[in-house]
Amino acid sequence: MAKAVLISGGVDSAVAVHLLKEAGEDLHLFYIRIGMDDRRGDCSAEEDIEICRLIARRYGLPLDVVPLHEEYWDHVMAYALRTVKEGRTPHPDMMCNRMIKFGFFEDRWGKEFEKTVTGHYASVREIGGRCFLGTAVDPVKDQTDFLAQITYSQLSHAQFPLGDLPKAEVRRLAQEAALPNAGRKDSQGICFLGKIDYNEFLRRHLGEKTGAVIEIETGKKIGEHKGYWFHTIGQRKGLGLGGGPWFVVRKNVKENVLYVSHGYETPLQYGRILNLMEMHWISGEPEEAASGSMKVAFKNRHTPAFLNGELRRQEDGEWLLESESDVQGIAPGQFAVIYTPDRELCLGSAMITAPEPGELKL
């Protein structure tokens, strides 16, 4: 039975195709097209599709370009814009994986194949008869935090050929195989939208509204901004303030006010408590969690570094994560991604609802 491979025009998915084809696998390639939208943003895919066609011809494989335009904008970008407007920090890539790549695509096309294959740096591990999301050997490229909202059925049908390869080895394999995109740079930006100007994207959809920038310790107005939705908790660059560094430590959405604190070591940009809601366990709730608490490793942003902490169930059924060390830029709306203490398995994720660092101290 053939496997469905999601390719993007990038080197990672191309090498995934190469590895599986070299192993004698029967493959069917798919490119998910989001397309152009004059009202809600632009996305040019012609160059990507041409590279995908070259790869398909190179290996004699069928390629289908499948449209999920409306689904993407109605579910992923609507979520992102709604979250930003509420003053929280969204994670569109995480939602894109759950809703689009392993959601609508899986429901309409992927389910007809043995597996759905992507170029993510992750792995699927079987332990005790169940599948678990495993971290990649390359800690810098590991993408389990982007996959931490997928469901168990989605994971069970997924395959990630690059999980055991460092990025340098992937590049080497691409060059050795003379793939047409061997030297192409990694894509950056929001899932499917590529290198868009994020602030321009927000400006197009949410507009501008002048508000005050206030030093939180003194209450003094030190500048102005063009809308709280352009800024995130923990942000340092792009504030337009002299004599820095300045960090965004709090937002007043109702009054359109940004609160900032000065200095690299300002305690107001740090915290140790992350209040969580809507805990999502990919492969079921771990036995350790049944007692109400468990030791974990975690991330609250895309980074190679892990933090250690204790996850505790609250009386309302939600969870509280207490870090063993200071956490910079705890941003409501972002996700805490939960791992086993040995960093081998990604167990799931939950949305952060904690107040900004230092808010309760004021």
Descriptive overview:
With 362 residues, the chain is α/β, with parallel strands linked by helices. It has 3 domains: 3-176, Rossmann fold; 208-262, SH3 type barrels (Roll); 268-361, Translation factors (Elongation Factor Tu (Ef-tu), domain 3). It is 23% helix and 28% strand. The chain has helices at residues 11-22, 46-59, 69-85, 92-108, 152-156, 167-176, 198-206, and strands at 3-6, 27-33, 63-67, 116-117, 123-127, 130-134, 158-159, 211-215, 221-225, 246-252, 257-262, 270-281, 293-299, 307-313, 319-328, 335-339, 345-352. The strands form 3 sheets. It has a 6-stranded antiparallel β-barrel. The radius of gyration is 22 Å and the shape is globular. The model is unreliable at 36-43 and 356-362 (pLDDT under 50).
Can you give me a brief rundown of this structure?
With 362 residues, the chain is an alpha/beta fold. It contains 7 helices and 17 strands.
